[in-house]
Amino acid sequence: MRTLFLVTLTSLIFLWYLSFLATRLDRLHHRVETSWANLDGLLQRRAAIALEIARSDFADPASSLLLTSAAYHAREASVQERSATESALSGALALFLVDGQLHANSAEQSLLDELGALTAKIRIAIAIHTDSVSSTQKVRQKIAIRLFRLSGTAPLPVTYEFEFDAL
Cys-Cys crosslink for 54: which of 27, 68, 91, 150, Cβ 3.0 to 4.6 Å? Predict the structure, then answer.
């Protein structure tokens, strides 16, 4: 009788532990998805501001064309192309800001200030996203999660190369 009680208790504790791990992993995956959605929204806003800057009066035609192309590619990129297009947009913005900041009027300066504030938010969002991804990857390496397949069909979250670029 006592042995049956101990076996039952041990089984219940083990099942509770597996349930706890599965719930924790689910929350981490949700955190990754939420942080990516936030980062994606900020990157889309950055591309929109880049288009506004490209259409402004102080942009020379060559810089405007380069910035417009990079912004459209960043907005329309698939997941596989995202890293390259975001890096290209960062490069185009960096080239443009070196040349364009000296000739900006007050309306155009407000766009540049908004871009600067947005870049700071993007850096924070990238830090949150990479932290979420690394936490999820760390938990998914646990033997109990791999052995009992607690991650289900959820893909392993990854970081993108542009997240390590200097924006």
Answer: 68
Task: Give burial (CB, 10 Å; 0-12/13-18/19+) of 2.
Answer: exposed
DSSP state of 166: -
Helices and strands: H and E segment counts in the chain: 5, 0
What are the residue ranges spanned by the domains of the chain?
A: 35-158
The pTM of the full predicted model, rounded to 2 decimals, is 0.90
Give the separation between CA 154 and CA 125, rounded to whole angstroms. Answer: 22
